[in-house]
Amino acid sequence: MTSKKIVDKASFDKAYKFYCSKNDKAAIGVLRKLDQNEPRVMELKAQIAYRMENFDEAMNLLKKLLRTHSDEFDEIRRSNFIAVQARLHSQGSTQEVDLISLDTFNLMFNASCHLIVSGKFNEAYELLCKALEECKCSLAKDGLDELAIKREEAPIRTQIAYVLKEMGNDKEALKIYQQINKPNIRRKRRRLPANYDPSVQPDPERWLPRQERTAYRKKLHKKFKDREVGKGTQGVAATTSANIDYSAKSTTTTGAAPPPTQAPQKPAEGPRQQRPNQAKKIKKKKGGKW
Fold first, then answer.
1. Is Endoplasmic reticulum given among the entry's keywords (predicted)?
2. CATH class of 99-184
3. How far is it, in rounded angstroms, from Cα 289 to Cα 24?
4. CA dist., res. 160 & res. 112, Å (int)
5. CA distance 185 to 72
6. What is the C-alpha to C-alpha distance for residues 161 and 169, in angstroms, rounded to an integer?
7. What is the residue-level pLDDT of the chain in tens, covering all 290 positions?
8. Which secondary-structure segment (H or E) carries 136?
9. Is 153 helix (H, G, I), strand (E, B) or coil?
10. pTM passes above 0.70
């Protein structure tokens, strides 16, 4: 890319930014320094002229662009051209629109605006209904969802309601207006926690701190884990005391109680015999003779 092309591209981008910020005069000042036969320059100038209501200039630019240039954006240019024709026709300048080569809903919509200005409401109504069907089919093929399609249909439906009102069908027009102005309320889906089971009753203590819940058990440090082992009453003592009968009546047969048995006495021990004292052992001293 040469330096001149780089400068021209930067200048066009600058003009387009002015156009997006609605500073049309500054955008035109930048575009005048560029090649006036370049398609993108003519197209942007036509857009600015339409917004400034210079419809004659916009029409001449679009007509020249459609005659000398052709690409994938021809449909948009034709749609804009018909929109300019409709505005000129509303100002008293007679314009004829080709109604045969209308193959998109944008072209049909703009052509219907021209018919409305001309007072041909029946033809406009038929063309708008056709545009509405084409809009549904084409946008559905493009993969748009239902809400996006309704947004695109809103201008066409509004125009249909206007035509019906002009034709004297106020009831049907009011019905369409109410459908358009009806807010699209989306129900928000409830966010549920992971592993949520609706069949299980929620814990009533779930709002309490963990330490205050009934099922809470404090974890002991492993150092003090076994300190409670061995404390408290033993099982044998508890069992023995449980088996004692404290009632006044005894379940045994009536009569004198047997005498208590005496434990056998151990024989008396005699005097202990003492062993003779042993002589003390003489320890040998370590070292030499003495």
1. yes
2. mainly alpha
3. 135
4. 10
5. 37
6. 9
7. 677 788 888 999 999 999 999 999 999 999 998 888 888 999 999 999 999 989 889 989 988 888 888 888 888 888 888 888 888 888 877 777 766 677 788 888 888 888 888 888 998 999 999 999 999 898 888 888 888 888 889 999 999 999 999 999 999 999 988 888 876 656 667 777 777 787 888 788 888 888 888 888 877 766 666 666 655 555 555 555 555 555 555 444 455 555 555 555 555 555 555 555 666 666 666 655 54
8. helix 121-141
9. helix
10. no
Six token digits for residue 47? 């857009």
1-96 and 99-184, same CATH topology: yes
1-96: which CATH number, 1.20.1560.10, 1.25.40.10, 1.10.3720.10, 2.30.30.370? 1.25.40.10
Is the Cβ–Cβ distance between 82 and 110 less than 8 Å? yes
